[in-house]
Design goal:
The chain is of the alpha+beta class. The protein is about 25% helix and about 30% strand. The protein has helices at about 20-25, 50-65, 85-90, 130-140, 155-160, 175-185, 240-250, 260-265, and strands at about 1-10, 10, 15, 35-40, 70-75, 80, 95-100, 115, 140-145, 150-155, 190-195, 195-200, 205, 210-215, 215-220, 225, 230, 235-240, 255, 280. Strands 8-9-11-7-10-5-1-4-20 form a 9-stranded mixed sheet.
Length: about 280
Amino acid sequence: MKVLAFTPTYRVNGEMAMRPETAAAVGTQVFDGVYDWVVGEDNPWPYPTHKNVLHQYQNARRMCLEGDYDALWTIEHDMLPPADALQRMSCTPAQVVYGVYLLRHGSLVLNAWEYIGDRNLGESLSLYPEKLEAARERGSVRVCGCGWGCTLIHRPALERIEFRDGGGENPAGDLAFAHAALAEGIASVARFDVLCGHYEDGRWLWPFRGVDVMVKVEALKDVVIPGGMRLAKGQQVEISPGLVEDLVRGGYVRVLSDELETAAMEGAPEQAVKKTARRRKGAVG
């Protein structure tokens, strides 16, 4: 399988807004196939709007269909997928496959929305504890969506569904896509073994796990950390606990709180080391 992975982002004061943890996770996926990762920065609207998000995904759909790709993997710039996310999703017998994460707008509910037929979108399975527990036990379940955060869309579905804004009611296009998939009779599946972190206000939100608070560190020397973030000696930044352990052991940074250092050392997840992504022009990693 050949996959186009696409991450839309933007710049703030010249700096890429994408989280370095996202870049590290996407760039080191362990995958049996081949994937090209493109980071998009084509934002025609000069102010924050979901219209830019939809515009970029429309570009990605076109690139995927014009290329020799079997699927499009949308992965947002503030997501933290597991190292084998693409592998697990690509092996799922469905044309649309969602990783599972928490939506940040309003209540913190899962993006896995209940399938209630081919007419209307259901509600988040977070609202139905018994059904949610059954889905977790099964490992995957049919859903009606939603979200672009970590979604694999196979070519047959891309060919049948254009990315639109639902008549202006859904500027980002994710709900409109989920509606269109229902109308076309295209099954969507959520993988509960592809649990993703979602960044918000200095913390990573995790399904069923809680929150990872960011760790403040000081660089002891100039260093480029996983994901491409450059730190100058003496610079103080907040980074994910998952990046701290190796940097501390290598003498590159020091944690600015003993309590946080203990938490970081105990809570750091295993890092993927096999790098398989091929970079396209304009991509970063």
